[in-house]
Amino acid sequence: MSDVVFTTTTTTTTTTTLAPTWDLVEATIAENFVRYLDSLGNLPGGQIILRYIKSSYKNDPIRSLFELALFIFALNYFLSSKKKENKSELVKFSQREIDELCDEWVPEPLIKELSDLEKWQMYSIPTIEGHNGSHVTINNKKVVNLASSDFLNLNESESVKEAAKSTISNTGVGACGPPNFYGTQDVHVRLEEDIAKYLDGENSILYGQDFVTAGSVIPAFLKRGDLCVVDSGVNFAIQKALIVSRCNIEWYDHNDMDHLEEILTEIKPVMDKQRPIRRRFIVTEGLFANSGDVVNLPRIIELKNKFKYRLFLDETLSIGVLGATGKGVVEHYGVPREEISITIGSMAMSFASSGGFCVGANPMVLHQRIQSIAYVFSASLPPYAAKVASQAIKEITSNLNADGSSVIVSQLQKKVTFAYEKLVSLSKSSKFFEVASGPHSPIIHLALNTQYREELNLPTLYGSPVFLSTGKPSKFLNEFDDYYNIESFLLQKVIDYVLDHSSTLISRSKLILEHENLPVLAPRLQIYINNGVTTEELSRLVQILPIAFNEVLKNVDSELKLISLNSEIGNYKPHYINY
Amino acid sequence: MARKERVLTANIPNAAPDDRPQEVLDELEYGKLSTKRYLYVSKHPVGEPLPTPIDDEPPYIIYLATYISYLILIIIGHIRDFFGKFFKPKEYADLIEKDGYAPWYDGFESFYVRRLKIRIDDCFARPIHGAPGRYVKCFNRIRHGKTGYLYDGTSNECLNLSSYNYLGFAQSNGVCTDYALGCVDDYGTSACSPRAISGTTDLHQKCERVIADFVGKEDAIIVSQGYGTNANLFSSIADSKTLVISDELNHASIRFGIRLSGASVKVFKHNDTKDLEKLIRNQIAQGQPKTHRPWKKIIIAVEGLYSMEGNMCNLPEIVEIKDKYKCYLFVDEAHSIGALGPGGRGICDYFSVDPARVDLLMGTFTKSFGATGGYIAGDKYLIEKMRTNYITQVYSESVPPAVMGQIISSLSVIEGTLNPGEGQERLQRIAFNSRYLRLGLKKLGFIVYGADDSPVIPVLLFLPAKMPAVSRMLYDMKIAVVIVSYPATPLISGRARLCVSAALTKEDLDYVLQKFNEVGDQIFLKFSSGIAGGSKVEGEPPRWAIEDVLATNVEDCKKPKLGYFN
Ligand SMILES: Cc1ncc(COP(=O)(O)O)c(C=O)c1O
C-alpha cells in the first residue's frame, strides 16, 4: 500500500509544474484511489474509514491524499524509531558464531576484591558494644562518642524510649505495608502534623529512610526540560537525585551569591521567552554536609523571588541544631518557612528515630503521595519510629528557656561554640590543621593546614570536574586515588590516637570517592558535638587534638614520606573488636 | 465505658485504648491453629519443570467493556476538565502558571489521579491502628468534600488480606515483641549514625550473621529500608560498561537502582527464560553499543516472587542460563524470603537450588518478619568490599535497634531456636493457607494469577468500576483487601491482591471464600475458563457451589498440582 501512496504523491508534485494536464491527472488519481479504497471496505471496520475518506475526498481529494501520506509517514516513523538505533548498528551473526563468542567472553568479577590499600577502610569502622549515645563502649572501654549524629542525645532519653516501647507494645515493630495500602497508622498522621507544625509548613510526608528522600522528592517535581540552579557543594544524595531527574542543571560556586545572581541574570532572557514556563528551582543545603558551611539563606530568598525560582532546601543536618528552637536555617536567619518551597530532613539525626521527611505546601505534598516512588513503592516507616520522632519534637519544643529558646538546643549550641572557639584558637598555633567548618555547624570539620598540604603536594580537590563543567555526570566512576587514600589514612591515625589516648571517638569525612559526582574536598576530621558530652570532656578532646596531629604528622614532611605510608596502610590491623 | 457522643473530625483520630483481655487481642493478631490437617510444606519437586502459570482470559466482552469504561472515564474527565477550568478555576489553581511560576505538576501527569483515582480514593490509604495482624483495624471514615474525610473515632476490624505479613509476625505481644522491647532498652531508639561512621553496633553484626546463615551465604549487609537496599545497590556493582538484564516486571526499586548506576539495561519478557537466553546471546555477541567492545559483565536481575502477579521466577532454569553464559545473578527475595521453601529460606530453598549459585541474594524484612529494612547477602569478598563502597553504608542511617530485635527474634523462631515448633507451624500454615485460598477461588470461578504456592493471590477484576465495588463490599463484610490498577498493572487487568498470612485460620479463609462467592455473584466476577485449574469436570469452566468447595478444599489443595484432577 505504501508503494501506491508514494507513487501518487510524486505524481502530484509533477502536476503542479504541468498545469494544463491537471484535470486529467486528477481524474486518473481519483480513479485509482477509489479502486484501492473499495478493497479497504472488505476489511473489518474498513467501512467506517472508507466512509470518512470518501466523504472527505468529495470535498478535496488532495487533502485526503495528504492525510494518508501523513498517516503513513507517522506509522513509518513510529515503526522505525523503535528499531533505528539497533538496526543500523547490529552485526549479523550466525548461531555458531554466537556460540563461539559466548564461549570466548570472559567477564570481569562482579566486584573487585578490596585491595591491600583499601582494606584499612573496612578495618577502621568502629564497632560500638551496646547502647549508642554520647558515651559508648568500644573495645571494652568506656569512651566519649563524638561521632554520633544524634546531636541532642535523645537516643538516651527515657521518655523517648518509653514512647517507642509503648508503641511497639501496641502495633508491633514493622508497618507491614506501603502507606497507600493499609500502612498508614494514626501515629504516622500525628507525626506528619507534628513536623508540619514544628517547621511551620502546611503539610508533611514521611519516608522510610533519610537517604532516599532527596532521590525521590526531586524527580517527582523536576523532569526533563525543567531547570535547577544548584550549589556546587551539595551532598551526595542531591547529586544523585538530580542525575536521576534528568533536568537541566546550572551550577553556581559553593555559597557564592554573586555568582548565583550572575547566572540567574544570564539565563533570564532565555527564561523569559520560555512558553509554557517550566519548573525552576534553586537547590541547596541548609547546613552543608561536605563543608560544614551554613547557606546564605536571606540572599537566596531575595534572588529566588526576584527571578521567580522555587527553593529546594535540604535541612538534613540543620534541623534540631540551628535556630533557637531547632527549626533549622530558617529559624537561624529568621525567615518564614513559606519561602522554602520544599524542605527535606532526616529523623535519624536530632530526632533519634529513623526515616526522612519533606515539608511544604499542600499540593506539593499530596503530589508526592502518589508520584514519589520511594513513598509509593516502599513500606511505611515503623509506627514506633514515628512516635519516637513525635516525642523528640516534644522534647525539643516543650522545655523552653525564659527567652523562648529550647533548653536542649541552646545547650548544644553553647557546646558547639565552646569547642569551635577553642579549636580555632588552637589551630592558629598549629602547623598541621585548621578549622574548616562554620561557627554554627555541630559537626566541626578540621582540615589539614593548607600550607602543609601544599608542601606535601596534595591536590586541592579530588574527583571529577565533568559534572560541573558539562551539567552531565561523567560516565565513569572515579578511580582509586592514592593521595586521597593516604590523606584519609593520616586522619584515621589521628582518630585512633585520640581514641587510645583520650578515650574519645571522633570521625572523619567518609565519602565514597568512587561514586561522588562532584569534585571532592580534601578529607577532614569531623567532631560531632553531642549534647550528652560535658564541656570538660570537650576540653579534654581539644587538648589532645594538637598533640595527636603532631604525633601523626611530624614525620610526614614530604611527598615521598607521604607515599611511603602505603606500606603502613597495607599493614593496618582492625582497630576494633568485631562480633 | 460510657458511650460518648460521636464527634466527627476531619483529622484522623487517635485510637482509643483497647481494653479487651490480652488473650482476645493475641488471637486477633494471630489465630490459633485448630488442627494439624491445615498444614502443608512449601517445596517444589526437584527436577520437575516449573509449570508455566496460565493466565486465564475473560470473555472478549469483558475486555471490550473494560476499554469502553476507561474511554468513558477519560472522555468525561476531559469534559469536566474543560468546563471546570471555566466554571471552577479555583480547583485548577494548582495546574496553571501563577505569577510566573510553573505549576507543581503537569495537568497531564495528574489527570489519572484527578479524574480516575479520586473517584475511588476511599479504597486506598485507609488509615489503620494497631498491629496489622490477622485482623486490621481501619478507622471508619466518610467522604467529605472533594478530597477530605470525616472520622468518628470508631474503627472497622477487618480480616486482613492486605498487609505483608506472610508469617504472621505482625504482633504486639510475644517473644519477638519482647526481644524488640529489650533492644530498645539496651540499645536505644535510633542507630544514631551511618554504619561507616559510628552506627555499627554488636547488634548489627549479630543480625548480619544471623541473616547470612539463614539464607546460606557467607556474609550479609543490612539496610534500614528495602527500597533503599535496591535503589543504591547497583551503583556498587555496575557501571556504564555493565549490562543489567532485568525482568520487565521488576520492582520500581530495582529499576531505580539500575538507572542510578548508569548501567545499560535490557528488559526481557516476564519470566520468559527463552527470551532471556536469546537476549544474553545476542548481547554477548553484539557487545556494547557503538564500540562493540565486549560487556565488562552481565548481571541478571529478577525477583523471587513477583508481588503483583504472584509468579515465581524460574530459578532452576535461570541458574542454568547464568552459569552457561557466565553472567551474574541478583535475586530480589522481598516477597519470597520467609514465605517460600520448607525452611522459609526463600526461593532457593523452595526449588532446592544451592544458594551459592545465586551471586547476590537481596530481601526485605518488611514482608515476612514483621520488621522493616532489607539485606544483601553474598560471598565474603563481595560484602567486605561493599562495606566500603555501598552507598547506604556511608551516606544513610543504619538499621535501628528495635528493628534488628524483631529480625533476630523472628529468624530465631523460624529456625526453631526460639519457641521450638512455632516456626515450623508458621511456615506450614502460610503454605497451606496460600494453596487453600487460591484453589478455593479458582473453584468458585474467579480468574486468579500466580503460582500454586505463592502467598500473593491476585484476583482479576478487569473493569474499573468493579475495583471500588469489591473493595467497598468486602470492607463492609469486614475483609480488607488491596486493589491495584494502572499504573501498577496493565490498564486492563485491574485486580484485587490478596496477601495470605500464616496468622489466618482455615475458618477465616472459609469466611473469605464465602464472601468472595457472594460478591462474585453479585457483580459478575466469575469468568474463568478453567484452563488455569479448578474445574470439576475437565474442560468445563469451574463454577462450584460454595458448599462443595468448602467440603473438598482441604484435601484438594494438598494435591501436587492445584485444580488438575487426573
Ligand atoms: C520486590 C520488592 N523489592 C523491594 C521492595 C521494597 O521493600 P520495602 O517496602 O522494605 O522498602 C518491595 C516492596 O514493596 C518489593 O516488592
TrEMBL record, chain A:
Gene3D superfamilies: Aspartate Aminotransferase, domain 1 (3.90.1150.10), Type I PLP-dependent aspartate aminotransferase-like (Major domain) (3.40.640.10). It holds the Pfam family Aminotran_1_2. InterPro entries: Aminotransferase_I/II_large (IPR004839), AON_synthase_class-II (IPR050087), PyrdxlP-dep_Trfase (IPR015424), PyrdxlP-dep_Trfase_major (IPR015421), PyrdxlP-dep_Trfase_small (IPR015422). Residues 141-423 form the Aminotransferase class I/classII large domain. One of its GO terms (cellular component) is endoplasmic reticulum. Its EC number is 2.3.1.50. GO terms for biological process: ceramide biosynthetic process; sphingosine biosynthetic process. Keywords: Acyltransferase, Lipid metabolism, Pyridoxal phosphate, Sphingolipid metabolism, Transferase. One of its GO terms (molecular function) is serine C-palmitoyltransferase activity. Its cofactor is pyridoxal 5'-phosphate. Pathway: Sphingolipid metabolism; Lipid metabolism; sphingolipid metabolism. PANTHER family: CLASS II AMINOTRANSFERASE/8-AMINO-7-OXONONANOATE SYNTHASE, SERINE PALMITOYLTRANSFERASE 1. Belongs to the class-II pyridoxal-phosphate-dependent aminotransferase family. This is serine C-palmitoyltransferase. It comes from Scheffersomyces stipitis (strain ATCC 58785 / CBS 6054 / NBRC 10063 / NRRL Y-11545) (Yeast). The gene is LCB1.
From TrEMBL, chain B:
It comes from the Eukaryota. The chain crosses the membrane at residues 60-79. InterPro entries: Aminotransferase_I/II_large, AON_synthase_class-II, PyrdxlP-dep_Trfase, PyrdxlP-dep_Trfase_major, PyrdxlP-dep_Trfase_small. It is an enzyme of class 2 (transferase). It is found in: Endoplasmic reticulum; Membrane. Its cofactor is pyridoxal 5'-phosphate. The keyword Membrane applies. Residues 157-515 form the Aminotransferase class I/classII large domain. Gene3D superfamilies: Aspartate Aminotransferase, domain 1, Type I PLP-dependent aspartate aminotransferase-like (Major domain). Its EC number is 2.3.1.50. One of its GO terms (molecular function) is serine C-palmitoyltransferase activity. Keywords: Acyltransferase, Endoplasmic reticulum, Lipid metabolism, Membrane, Pyridoxal phosphate, Sphingolipid metabolism, Transferase, Transmembrane, Transmembrane helix. GO terms for cellular component: endoplasmic reticulum; membrane; serine palmitoyltransferase complex. SUPFAM superfamilies: PLP-dependent transferases (SSF53383). Its main location: endoplasmic reticulum. Pfam families: Aminotran_1_2. Belongs to the class-II pyridoxal-phosphate-dependent aminotransferase family. This is serine C-palmitoyltransferase.
